[in-house]
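WARN no homologs supplied; continuing
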Amino acid sequence: MAKHLRYHHLLFYPGALCLLLLFHKEVHGQNFLEPIPDSSRIYQFRHDYETPEGEAFSTIDTLIGSVHTYDPKLRNGFLPASTGPIGQPYKPLLLSLPSAGFSFRPSPLGNYLFSNDCVPSYLTGKPFTHLFYIMGLKKEQNLSIEHSQNVLPNVSVGLSFRLSDFPGYYPQQATENKNLNIRLRYKTGNNRYGLQTHYLHNKIRLRENGGILYDSIFEQNLETSRDRYEIRLSEAMNRIRENGYFLKQYFRLARPKTDTSASKRIFFSLPGMITHSVLISRHFHVYEDEMSGSDTAFYPHNYYSSATSYDSVSIRMIENRLTWTNMAAGSAEQVIGISAGLRHQYAELSGYMPVSYFRLFIPFITLGIAPFHGLNFGFHGEHVAGEGFGGDYVLQANAGLSGDFGKITFSSELTGISPGYFYREYASNHYRWSNDFRRESYITQNLDYSCQGWHAQLSHTEIRDAVYLDTLAQPVQKDGNVSYLKAYVGKNMVFRRWGLDIRLYWQDASDDEIFRFPQFMAYGGLHYTRELFRQALRVRAGAECYFHSGYFADAYTPATISFYRQNVKRVGEYPFTNLFLTLQIKRSRIFLKYDNLLYLAGQFTYYTVPDYPLQDGGFRFGVSWMFYD
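OK structure emitted
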């Protein structure tokens, strides 16, 4: 019976598509949902284009400010805990709240994967292509290709491709990451009906060495040839493959008005618009190891075999989402906006255990109120019904005030989320457990303030019944409450040709056994920019530094590609400093970068994960070229 239930979801997709296509023949008119692209600007947006215009669309970065920061794990502005060079597993060093619905475990590869939420689409009046190539030491190569164009007046296609190939500094450290996204977009002339679909593919191969065997040899630099270091695993590998198909369509329940001269404030807009989306995905993860010598002794248990490990996880997922909203009603400002809908998730989990099925229904509602210009209130709620995650909920509220003094926002969130299924049931050659964990709960308050380039935030979170991996890499649940406090301040300043970017984080938890984070984190960037040859050439030279205080960082286990507690080695207190020189000539940007400057000073303590040194000092060269025709 369960096997046949897998396919009844598919019957809904062509039916819904045909129903909405009945309305696609519309007269041409003003486009109310998106800005009109011109030949000099490229807009990008995510798949959630039913949000208000100001939040959905942004222009791409064509300047030279961040072109040298090409590593995806640095997108959040701070150096995370990483097992090595680009492409390796990493863990963010700030607390993030879980979301409602089916979950297995947090992704240790994060920004190295193309996901449905992170890959942008583009709006452009002319064909747009962006080529980006980086070359570094030890045959490190990174290639990125973006392309988008209109093949018909109302039909656009696009492609995103990314390749990262790095043999590594140490034995058994090679990584190979491939990401592909192919997309198509259609809309009627007056944008009453629109459709967007894309295909996602991720393929990652990680050679796992378990870390270097003797830290003292590295820290004293007794052996300068990194490929001669003894390692803990000699044959282990993680392979990850993901495929996803996404389709989203919207239909406005009334014809858009062609008169755009009136931008009067309205109280409540009807009838609004309906959106439907479906995501079909498959995730496949394999850990394999031909164990011999040190590989056999690395793990405490070999439940199935002491000669070979082959542990697999397969997750198939189908998610439908149906939404009605009046929040994208055009350029007019409205007092009350509402979005309401239903998500349906169907997941199959297999590989290490008999197939498990999850069917979840998640109704949600979002309410926005703007009684006066500059003042707004918001509310969002969702509740989960179904197997495995039933009873989970998310409640959010916020209030914002903006004016000449800047913008201040207060938000509060109450969340009850079941731990990911990985923490409850798991069985492999090296790890196995069966736990009956309670739901985790989070109560968070945030206060944000921004003005003239300044941004400050104060956040407090109360966590109850937190789940984490202990020193044996086994999941445990902490009884009672843990308090987490975070403060942030940042400023991007420009004075004539000089620029300074400063970001400071302070965080503290009442129980550091539960949450292991550095108490203090900082980023500082200083640069000098000048235009030469009658502004035909722009040159920027600068330095940047990442730093965090010392703490007992989580260790890493390749068998479950997870991070767990350890109480032996402190890491941190190392200023990871880079120098860069960037040139911009019209649409091309070229940079030369030296990573890890203190490597030249003979300081060899650049860990963020125990036994996994970061990259040595060295040059990297990159070229970014954009074509608008």
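The chain has a mean pLDDT of 86.
OK
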